[in-house]
């Protein structure tokens, strides 16, 4: 058994975003056995309650803060190498930037390299659980599940499906999609920390026949998730409306195939309508809010208040590579800033609201609310240790914080991946060492000279 000692902040309650309360415990002890938190309390009390003569290890995390592992509800594995493209709206960015890169994953060797970089990006940012958009190629999806299993991170992912509107190499057929999906699900679903997710890219690139095949996979793979994109940009919404003349709205393009339910996470939903919010609420579905992506692509400002007022569950997604990076600290801050920009239409968010969005909201959206999302007794020890470097603004901020909530606000504003001292999944520390060492400046220069 292991005792993790530190200042523990989490949001275990069932409050809705906008009213979340923080649980803050300075000098707390979390007793972890078999990956699970089995006791929690003041350090002296937990240690005092242990049977005498037993062996336990104490991991001292008192410098900084211990938070639950972060949950990314929407992120694309094949896009890690195209992060940072600026100046394009969604459909242009897909055509010029994302899709040409995604076509390269036809090569399993290439995909393996991308998968290792992607998983490293997740873990290094403190993300311990993620709902991941996979690849259009089954071999590349295998490569991803292998990399995730090797790293020991919790993931749900699947084969991405499209049968129109994209480059030919990325297209499939309903029958092929069904067969390849079942094959992948048999190999990966509920093995280790992995689950299968049915992932049509978006209804713009998926015919009704393909969405029907998605529905069959969802029925035949017990416990699979469903995820896709919805109402992201105005141009995309108009294009979908033109393709699905008989659908009530964008959400209905999925719902009429039985794809919208409690196992569903739809990304973006920026340009939503009241009937769609009512439907999502009735179905118990979740929306992945991807604030930095929405800002980078100029998609729009997310109407969080309307989601909350309709009772629609909202989690947070980095949306790498349209988003600006893996860090859910940064996404949480961007979510806060977005609501500020909306003025009176925005929902004022506190630091506890933001922590909930980045942890427990995501765990619930992914159907893992009983296992992860906070650090209560009975939950898995999925955790991140925020340990600022001496003298950095984060360190200064934490040392001068007036309260735990204040400290959390500073952590959410200032933490970068370089400030994480450790990341644990199910009690196991996951390695945050980069898979491919950076070329030294000399090597880089030498290469450059050879090619010029
Ligand atoms: N809609 C369809 N595909 C994508 C994607 O890769 N990224 C984003 N942000 N939106 C999408
Ligand atoms: Zn996306």
TrEMBL record:
<dbReference type="Pfam" id="PF01979">
    <property type="entry name" value="Amidohydro_1"/>
</dbReference>
<dbReference type="InterPro" id="IPR051607">
    <property type="entry name" value="Metallo-dep_hydrolases"/>
</dbReference>
<dbReference type="InterPro" id="IPR011059">
    <property type="entry name" value="Metal-dep_hydrolase_composite"/>
</dbReference>
<dbReference type="GO" id="GO:0046098">
    <property type="term" value="P:guanine metabolic process"/>
</dbReference>
<keyword id="KW-0378">Hydrolase</keyword>
<keyword id="KW-0479">Metal-binding</keyword>
<feature type="region of interest" description="Disordered">
    <location>
        <begin position="435"/>
        <end position="452"/>
    </location>
</feature>
<dbReference type="GO" id="GO:0005829">
    <property type="term" value="C:cytosol"/>
</dbReference>
<dbReference type="InterPro" id="IPR032466">
    <property type="entry name" value="Metal_Hydrolase"/>
</dbReference>
<feature type="domain" description="Amidohydrolase-related">
    <location>
        <begin position="65"/>
        <end position="392"/>
    </location>
</feature>
<dbReference type="InterPro" id="IPR006680">
    <property type="entry name" value="Amidohydro-rel"/>
</dbReference>
<keyword id="KW-0862">Zinc</keyword>
<dbReference type="GO" id="GO:0008270">
    <property type="term" value="F:zinc ion binding"/>
</dbReference>
<protein>
    <submittedName>
        <fullName>Guanine deaminase</fullName>
        <ecNumber>3.5.4.3</ecNumber>
    </submittedName>
</protein>
<dbReference type="GO" id="GO:0008892">
    <property type="term" value="F:guanine deaminase activity"/>
</dbReference>
């Amino acid at each position: 058994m292991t005792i993790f000692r530190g200042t523990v902040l989490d949001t275990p309650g069932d409050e809705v975003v906008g009213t979340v309360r923080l649980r803050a415990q300075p000098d707390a002890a979390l007793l972890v056995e078999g990956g699970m938190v089995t006791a929690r309390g003041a350090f002296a009390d937990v240690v005092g309650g242990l049977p005498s003569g037993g062996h336990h290890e104490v991991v001292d995390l008192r410098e900084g803060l211990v938070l639950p592992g972060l949950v990314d509800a929407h992120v694309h594995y094949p896009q890690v190498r195209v992060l940072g493209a600026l100046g394009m709206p969604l459909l242009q960015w897909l055509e010029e930037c994302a899709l040409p890169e995604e076509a390269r994953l036809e090569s399993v060797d290439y995909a393996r390299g991308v998968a290792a970089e992607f998983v490293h990006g997740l873990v290094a940012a403190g993300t311990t659980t993620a709902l991941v958009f996979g690849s259009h190629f089954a071999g590349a999806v295998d490569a991803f599940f292998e990399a995730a299993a090797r790293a020991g991170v919790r993931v749900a992912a699947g084969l991405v499906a499209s049968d129109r509107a994209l480059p030919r190499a990325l297209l499939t057929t309903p029958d092929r999609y069904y067969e390849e999906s079942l094959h992948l699900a048999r190999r990966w679903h509920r093995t280790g920390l992995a689950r299968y997710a049915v992932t049509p890219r978006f209804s713009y690139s998926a015919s009704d026949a393909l969405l029907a095949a998605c529905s069959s996979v969802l029925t035949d793979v017990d416990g699979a998730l469903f995820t896709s994109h919805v109402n992201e940009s105005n141009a995309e919404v108009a294009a979908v409306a033109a393709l699905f003349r008989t659908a009530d709205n964008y959400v209905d393009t999925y719902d009429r195939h039985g794809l919208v339910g409690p196992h569903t996470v739809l990304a973006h939903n920026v340009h939503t309508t009241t009937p769609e919010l009512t439907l999502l609420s009735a179905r118990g579905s979740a929306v992945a809010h991807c604030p930095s992506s929405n800002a980078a692509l100029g998609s729009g400002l997310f109407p969080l208040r309307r989601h909350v007022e309709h009772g629609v569950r909202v989690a947070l997604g980095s949306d790498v590579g349209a988003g600006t990076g893996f860090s859910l600290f940064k996404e949480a801050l961007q979510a806060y800033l977005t609501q500020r920009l909306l003025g009176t239409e925005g929902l004022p968010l506190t630091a506890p609201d933001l922590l909930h969005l980045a942890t427990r909201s995501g765990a619930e959206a992914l159907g893992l609310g009983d296992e992860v999302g906070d650090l209560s007794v009975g939950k898995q020890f999925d955790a991140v240790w925020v340990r600022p470097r001496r003298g950095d603004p984060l360190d200064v901020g934490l040392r001068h914080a007036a309260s735990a909530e204040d400290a959390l606000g500073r952590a959410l504003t200032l933490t970068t991946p370089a400030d994480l001292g450790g990341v644990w999944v199910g009690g196991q520390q996951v390695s945050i060492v980069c898979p491919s060492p950076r070329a030294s400046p000399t090597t880089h220069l030498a290469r450059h000279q050879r090619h010029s």
